[in-house]
UniProtKB/TrEMBL annotation:
One family name in Pfam for this protein: QIL1
Keywords: Membrane, Mitochondrion, Mitochondrion inner membrane, Transmembrane, Transmembrane helix
Location(s), subcellular: Mitochondrion inner membrane
Role noted for this protein: Component of the MICOS complex, a large protein complex of the mitochondrial inner membrane that plays crucial roles in the maintenance of crista junctions, inner membrane architecture, and formation of contact sites to the outer membrane.
Phylogenetic placement of the source organism: Eukaryota, Metazoa, Chordata, Craniata, Vertebrata
Name this polypeptide is given: MICOS complex subunit MIC13
Membrane-topology descriptor: Single-pass membrane protein
Domain of life: Eukaryota
GO CC term (a single one): MICOS complex
Assembly and oligomerization: Component of the mitochondrial contact site and cristae organizing system (MICOS) complex.
Family: Belongs to the MICOS complex subunit Mic13 family.
Length: 110
């Protein structure tokens, strides 16, 4: 005898199979795909918008700009978290200054 899967049918144990499990599983999988696709699309747009794959002088300028903008933004975010939660975040030491000229190492291995 051939067994077929029918929505709302009873299983071998006599219990009714859930009607919406296939829909919920599909929704969970598609939701993960949409979130990951959105993050990847945003990253591609940011790279294109900032011209990071263009000439090395523009890439170097974007890297310097990020180095100037990110530490103050992280400090502001930590202050916001402290105000909202009442937690005290210990002061971290200053990050080391890193100088890595992209122009000097671009295609250096060829």
């Amino acid at each position: 005898m051939r067994s077929e899967c029918v929505l709302g049918a009873t299983s071998d144990s006599g219990q009714e199979a859930p009607r919406d499990t296939w829909f919920l599983q599909g929704w969970k999988a598609s939701r993960r795909f949409l979130i990951k696709g959105s993050v990847a699309g945003g990253a591609v747009y940011l790279v294109y918008d900032q011209e990071l794959l263009g000439p090395s002088d523009k890439s170097q300028a974007a890297l310097q700009k990020a180095g100037e903008v990110v530490p103050p933004a992280m400090y502001q975010f930590s202050q916001y978290v402290c105000q909202q939660t009442g937690l005290q975040i210990p002061q971290l030491p200053a990050p080391p200054k890193i100088y890595f000229p992209i122009r000097d190492s671009w295609n250096a291995g060829i």
